[in-house]
Every structure is written in C-alpha cells, then in structure tokens.
C-alpha cells in the first residue's frame, strides 16, 4: 500500500481490523493488515502509538512500514509491544525510514504494480528492500536500533539508578526511542503532560496497570489529558458501563502513578503552564503545537506511552525542537495577498457593527488555515506570513489554529510572523525567510476554500443539525464568554431537537462558575462535560446514531477532520455564531462577510 500522504494512525486506522478510516486520505477503505505500508510518515495525533500497540496485540499490524522520515510515534507503539508484552505471541512489523530520494522510487506510476520484498539479517537490524525483484534499497530496522544514551541531569552529569522495575523499563523505552530519533544524550524536563490516558483498547489499560504494579511514580509535575468519559457523570449521561469502567480504570492507574487530577486537552490553560525556553515533555498534538509555537516552550510531539515513561524517568532525548538550531523554519507559507485582498476590506466593514464581528465568521479562518498550513508544510517547520495584518489575533484564535495544524502537520512547531514569540521583529523574520531558501507557498483563496470544503465534509447531507459539538480543544473562559454573548444577541431559546454539548476542563469550569458563564450556558440548554473531549466521545448516547439524518456541527477544525472517521456521522463545520444559530433554529445557516 503506497501513498505520498502521511496518515494519523489515531482517527485514521481502525485498530480492530486495520482498515483506513480517514475519509480525507487516499488510502481510505484499504486495509493495512499484513501489508507493506509505504507512507512518508505518520501525522496528526500522538495517540498513533496506542493504535499501533492495539494493532500488534490484535494481529492486525502490517508486515512492514516503509517511511520516508523517521516517525517515533509509530515506533513507540511497537517498542511498547516488545518491552511490555514480550511473553505473548504477538507480531511486530519491521519499520524502516529510507529518506526522500529512496522513497520517491517507491511511487507507483499509472497502473504499474510494484512488488516489494523485504529481507532482514539474523538480528533483524539490516534490511534490504527489493522492488519488482530488481532495484534494491538498503536500510535498517528502526526497532532493532539499541544503544545507551548519555544523561545530562543539570547537576553532576550522572543519572541516578532506577528505583523500581517500572523506572527500569521506562528508561529502556526512553533510551530506545531516543536512539531511533537520532539523539546522543538525554536532558531533564520541568513538566509532563500525558496523552496516553485515553482508553482505546485493553493494551493501553494493561500497560498503565503494569507500571503501577511495578511501583512506578512520576518524577516531575505531570498533568493528564482528556480521558474517554466524564469521570463523575458517566452514569447520568447514559454512558455504557463497560466503557466507563475501562476508561476510569486507565485514569485511575495514571493517578496512582502520581499524575495530577487535570484531565484536559488544553493544559496551556492551567495556571502552571510552561515558560519560553523550558524543556518539557507534552503529549496531545494540539498542546504540543501550542506550547512550542505560542508559549515558546520546547517539546517534541511525543507519543502516547513514551510520555509516561519520560515522566517516570524525568528525561527526554535531546533532539528535534529541544535544540535551538532545529527550531528554524524551512518553508514559508505566505497568506499576505489572500488576507489583504479577500479579508481585510470586509473585516473593516464588519467592525462598525459589534454584532457583525460574531456574524462574520472570521473565527473560521484560523482552523481552516491551520489545517491547510499543516498540509502545505509537508513535515517542515513553517513561517506563516500575513496574520499580523489582521486587527487582532487572540490566544483562542491561535488555539484553534494549533489544533487544526496538529491534525495534518507532522512538525511540532510553526512560526507566525509578528504573532508568535520566536518570530517577532523584521530582522528576525527576514533571517527566517532567508533560511527557507526557495521553499515558499503562496496561499490562494481557492486553497482556503478547499480546506473549508474538506472540513465541511457533511454539507451534501443537508443543513439540519442534530448535535452542536463545542470545545475541541477544551473551551477557555474567553470562549465561554463569547458563547454567552452570542446567545444574548436575541432572546430565542434553544431548539428542542438539537443537543448542544461542550467539553472543558474542571479548572476552567470553576472559573466560569464564578463569572456566571456556566449558569448562563446551562440555562440556554448547553450540557457541559469535564474530563473528556470529542475525539474520545465515539458512541451513543452522546454521539447520534449513524443514520443519514444525524449531523454534527462543530467549529473545531480538529474535530471536523477526525470526526467523520471516528463517528461515522456527517460532520458540518461552521463558526461559533453558526453553531449557536443552529442550536436555536435546528439548521445551519450561511455565514456572511469575512468568513468562508
């Protein structure tokens, strides 16, 4: 199976059968089980490693994965299978990264069929890839690469010996992934955020419980991502008991490991967020992109399972964007002309009327452009031009951009000229442009409209809406205020046929309680969920049954991307104003002005 488009295993491949479920991917409908999968890299979610583990345990993994670029997320799932489930009869794929030139030779031309055979030596380390029995590519099995990395602890240069069997195993995982990533040393971290708390199968639950049994404890302040159900209200919400029990058991295991009771996919909204220059270990793709790009902290896009291993050890490989030289952009994405010609004239007209600011749908620009920028960057760190022309760019706008960028981009960082902290000032920006050479993409209106159309994939199913899904990533206090303000534009009540559900962290809801936003939203008919998020809410009664009339409307580019494959529902994509309008009238209306 060949594609020149990377794929997120989470939301892209079903771990129960190996089928490609990402409806936007060229391989949609194909099955990777027992195949030789050839893709440039993974992309999107850090939870791809969880899917890889479940594929291995379920016997649905490919025989081999041939990558253009090294992908530590996919490798992590296989490494965990080897290290934690070695006593079980499971299959582990060969994983190779062969570079851009060799990968281009795999491309299929027209109807020509390319037959690939892979041979490995006795220790499974050296691999020869033969195409049609002729052309050969020599590579290495990334999973067979093992070496000892030196430690840097910031004090005396010596790392402490493992205090438990859990720490010993975690150290092996960190060492192996560091070696695969090309690191030569490990560095200390100041905090961690664990994405692996999602329940997608028994493998992840058994892994977490194994760490507890072996006396594992985190060494640094560690927060938890959203889990798969609201821990306190699952029964009231009608969630299946088996699912809720498994989901809460995963969360319980991580709490026993010493993680904080946070359960949010937006840890950057918590009071103890990292500062510029801090080396951290964060999972969850939107949080990784936000922490690097908006906060200026330093973290790779770390895989689920690696995240908790690094928190137990307190160290990560000194590689990727932890190093200053690797944070430079290598491609320019220029939206200047698009914004000047198509957005600014209408924006200036809308500013005259405060209501038009909401009605314009300008908030759609950020997830649409984030999704588009991830695609256009092709694994590189981009410098994005033109957004500083807008009257304002809020943290919530950047939150939406980061989440959508994280679904299609594989790099953990972008720079936005005169917006993000490492791209401020003409001299800095000019130096960045020079570092990109001739790699430059000019964004057109057609590009942005195509991105919006792709995200609004359920449009052909009609405008009637069954569910409005808000809060992916989790709502901020500012977004809750915006929702209250939009609802208050007129006195129409919520349509009884439409459910409106928003997810948010407990900390944010406590703040919103004090400000009166929670009461206002609940009085309108919004159901507020904690501890979980939309990419984990996959089944009825939260998700409508999969009949043709069931349609979900969201303002999240991330959920619009993953939702169709995860839920089998028709997903509509609209502005926050459109979401509230649909909640009131039961239908999705058009957006005027500066929106799509």
Helix content: 25-40%
Question: If you average the pLDDT, what whole number results?
Answer: 91
In total, the number of strands is: 21
Q: Which residue ranges are poorly predicted, with pLDDT under 50 across at least 5 consecutive positions?
A: 153-157
Strand content: 5-15%
Describe the main β-sheet briefly. 5 strands, parallel
Strand order of the largest sheet: 19-18-17-20-21
Q: Distance between the terminal alpha carbons, to the nearest Å? A: 35 Å
Overall 3D shape: globular
Produce the secondary structure layout.
Blueprint: E1 36-39, H1 48-58, E2 64-67, H2 72-84, E3 94-97, H3 99-104, E4 116-120, E5 126-131, E6 135-140, E7 150-151, H4 165-180, E8 185-188, E9 192-194, H5 202-213, E10 222-224, H6 241-256, E11 281-282, H7 285-295, H8 306-313, E12 315-317, E13 331-334, H9 336-350, H10 354-359, H11 365-377, E14 382-385, H12 395-408, E15 415-416, H13 426-435, E16 440-442, H14 445-455, E17 467-470, H15 477-487, E18 499-503, H16 506-515, H17 517-524, E19 526-529, E20 551-554, H18 557-567, E21 570-573, H19 576-585
Parallel strand pairs: 1-2, 2-3, 7-8, 9-10, 9-11, 13-14, 13-16, 14-15, 17-18, 17-20, 18-19, 20-21
Antiparallel strand pairs: 4-5, 5-6, 8-12
């Amino acid at each position: 199976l060949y594609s020149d488009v990377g794929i997120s295993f989470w939301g892209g491949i079903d771990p129960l059968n190996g089928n490609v479920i990402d409806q936007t991917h060229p391989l949609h409908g194909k099955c990777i089980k027992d195949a030789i999968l050839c893709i440039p890299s993974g992309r999107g979610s850090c939870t791809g490693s969880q899917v890889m583990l479940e594929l291995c345990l379920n016997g649905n993994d490919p025989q081999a994965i041939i990558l253009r670029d090294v992908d530590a997320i996919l490798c992590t799932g296989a490494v965990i299978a080897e290290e934690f489930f070695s006593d079980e009869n499971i299959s582990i794929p060969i994983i190779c990264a062969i570079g851009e030139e060799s990968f281009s030779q795999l491309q299929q031309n027209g109807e020509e069929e390319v037959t690939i055979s892979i041979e490995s030596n006795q220790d499974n380390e050296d691999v020869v890839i033969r195409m049609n029995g002729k052309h050969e590519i020599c590579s290495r099995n990334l999973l067979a690469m093992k070496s000892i990395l030196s430690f840097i602890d910031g004090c005396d240069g010596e790392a402490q010996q493992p205090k438990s069997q859990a720490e010993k195993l975690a150290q092996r995982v960190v060492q192996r992934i560091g070696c695969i990533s090309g690191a030569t040393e490990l560095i200390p971290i100041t905090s961690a955020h664990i994405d692996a708390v999602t329940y997608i199968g028994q493998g992840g639950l058994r892994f977490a419980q194994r760490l507890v049994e072996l006396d594992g404890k985190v060494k640094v302040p560690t927060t938890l991502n959203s889990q798969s159900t609201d821990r306190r209200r699952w029964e009231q919400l009608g969630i299946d008991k088996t699912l809720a029990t498994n989901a809460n058991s995963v969360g319980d295991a991580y709490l026993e490991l010493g993680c904080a009771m946070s359960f949010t996919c937006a840890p950057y909204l918590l009071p103890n967020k990292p500062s510029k220059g801090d080396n951290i270990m964060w999972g969850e793709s939107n949080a990784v992109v936000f922490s690097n790009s908006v906060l200026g902290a330093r973290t790779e896009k770390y895989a689920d399972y690696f995240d908790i291993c690094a928190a137990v050890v307190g160290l990560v490989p000194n590689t990727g964007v932890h190093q200053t030289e690797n944070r430079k952009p290598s491609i320019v994405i220029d939206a200047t002309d698009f914004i000047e010609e198509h957005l600014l004239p209408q924006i200036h007209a809308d500013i005259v009327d405060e209501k038009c600011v909401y009605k314009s749908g300008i908030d759609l620009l950020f997830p649409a452009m984030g999704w588009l920028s991830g695609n256009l960057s092709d694994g590189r760190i981009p410098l994005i031009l033109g957004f500083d022309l807008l009257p304002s760019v809020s943290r919530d706008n950047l939150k939406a951009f980061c989440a959508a960028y994280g679904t299609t981009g594989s790099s953990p960082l972008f720079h936005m000229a005169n917006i993000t902290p490492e791209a401020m000032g003409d001299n800095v920006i000019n130096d960045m442009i020079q570092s990109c050479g001739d790699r430059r993409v000019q964004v057109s209106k057609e590009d942005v409209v195509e991105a919006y159309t792709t995200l609004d994939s359920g449009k052909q199913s009609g405008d009637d809406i069954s569910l409005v899904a808000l809060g992916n990533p989790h709502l901020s206090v500012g977004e809750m205020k915006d929702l209250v303000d939009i609802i208050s534009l007129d006195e129409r009540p919520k349509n009884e046929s439409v459910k409106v559900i928003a997810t948010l962290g407990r900390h944010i809801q406590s703040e919103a309680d004090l400000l009166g936003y929670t009461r206002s939203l609940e009085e309108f008919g919004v159901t507020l969920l904690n501890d979980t998020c939309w990419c984990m809410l996959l089944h009825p009664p939260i998700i409508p049954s999969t009949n043709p009339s069931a349609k979900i409307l969201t303002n999240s580019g991330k959920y619009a991307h993953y939702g169709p494959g995860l839920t089998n529902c028709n997903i509509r994509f609209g502005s926050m104003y459109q979401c509230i309008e649909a909640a009131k009238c039961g239908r999705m209306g058009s957006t005027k002005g500066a929106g799509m």
